[in-house]
Amino acid sequence: MLEFLLRFFGRETTSSKKIAKERLRLVLVHDRAGVSPHLLEALKNDLIKVISEYMDIDTAGLEVSLNQENDSVALVANIPILRVKRTFKTGTETAAKA
Amino acid sequence: MGEVIVITSGKGGVGKTTTTANLGTGLASLGKKVVLVDTDIGLRNLDVVMGLENRIVYDLLDVVEGRCRLKQALIKDKRLDNLYLLPANQTRDKTAVSRQQMIDLTAQLREEYDFVLIDCPAGIEMGFKNAIAGAEKALVVTTPEVAAVRDADRIIGLLEAAEMEPPRLIINRLRPDMVRRGDMMDIEDMLEILAIDLIGVVPEDEYIVISTNRGEPAVLDKHSRAGQAYRNIARRLTGEEVPFLNWDAGNGIMARLRRLIGLG
């Protein structure tokens, strides 16, 4: 009854239409860009490899996704940092060692 | 020279065949000379929806493989004498007709007919590629469901890649009551997501089941709401400007009250 009243006065709980639209938006961004979950996983693993050279990160909490903003698609990476490494190997150092 | 229009969708079961039958019958009712081509080889259905299943002698494959003349395979409609059907073959698969054969066939048909409507198989496989080969326009059918809209988007991408005219959308089986409750995507939602032009909206209508059972397209029934929607789309296909029916009675408090007491 409460739900009915809320709906009647236009204060809808998240309607299934809105959920459908949001889910479609996300899935279509991936479809149109031709980005498979497999590709994103590979990208994520490479990001972990590179960033770990400089920082300790929470690999389990790392999220990589595509977002649509207006007409453009953005790659969004959310990377929780545990600790920044004091010393890091620069490109020249690693090159010198090798 | 007639127009060749392919009726397509990504997902199966959204109403392509029903749409083809009704638009063809609608166009023929407007006095146009129309031929319907069922390219869903292996799974023919347009014949039963049209109620012409027991008149089939030859089919699309017999024509393209030269076993009969085109005229022999065309089945004249029971009700309208300017409406014809070219049925699909049931014993072979979707690779049986080539792109070139479809291009040749449609070129031949458009010489004589005002409209050549092609009922396309669902999906993006060989059958789809062949079905669109000879077409210059496409109508994409979807229902307001996540899976159907997603697949429609994929089809629209493929049609655009095929360098056809921008396809137009038919939203089928819309339920205005669910849209009002916020439980079904509305027309604007889908147009925004798919970014193509709309040519018509067909409401969910029990009469479609009855008309399919009988083999009589709903467009011929004056009382069917879906039939009315199909008549409007047929008129739009002939270039006529027909206003869209207003499915949304508004969300103002008065509209809500009116609906509540049954006046909406």
From TrEMBL, chain A:
Annotated signal peptide: none
What the entry lists under Pfam families is as follows: MinE (PF03776)
For this protein, the record's InterPro entries field holds: MinE, MinE_sf
Tell me the GO BP annotations in alphabetical order.
cell division; regulation of division septum assembly
Q: Which UniProt keywords apply?
A: Cell cycle, Cell division
Name the family.
Answer: Belongs to the MinE family.
Stated role: Prevents the cell division inhibition by proteins MinC and MinD at internal division sites while permitting inhibition at polar sites. This ensures cell division at the proper site by restricting the formation of a division septum at the midpoint of the long axis of the cell.
Q: Record's HAMAP family?
A: MinE
Q: What is this protein called?
A: Cell division topological specificity factor
Organism, scientific name: Neomoorella humiferrea
From TrEMBL, chain B:
Asked if the Swiss-Prot or TrEMBL record annotates the protein with the keyword Isomerase, the reply is no
InterPro entries noted in UniProt: AAA_dom (IPR025669), MinD (IPR010223), MinD_FleN (IPR025501), P-loop_NTPase (IPR027417), ParA/MinD_ATPase (IPR050625)
Q: Which GO terms describe its molecular function?
A: ATP binding; ATP hydrolysis activity
Highest taxon listed in the record's lineage:
Bacteria
The segment(s) forming the AAA domain are: 3-158
What does the entry give for GO biological process?
A: division septum assembly; negative regulation of cell division
- Where along the chain is ATP bound? 11-18
Q: Kindly list any coiled-coil regions of this protein.
A: none
**One GO CC annotation, please?**
cytoplasmic side of plasma membrane
**Does Cell division count among this protein's keywords?**
yes
The alphabetized UniProt keywords are:
ATP-binding, Cell cycle, Cell division, Nucleotide-binding, Septation
Q: What does this protein do?
A: ATPase required for the correct placement of the division site. Cell division inhibitors MinC and MinD act in concert to form an inhibitor capable of blocking formation of the polar Z ring septums. Rapidly oscillates between the poles of the cell to destabilize FtsZ filaments that have formed before they mature into polar Z rings.
| Identification of the protein by name | Septum site-determining protein MinD
Primary gene name: minD_1
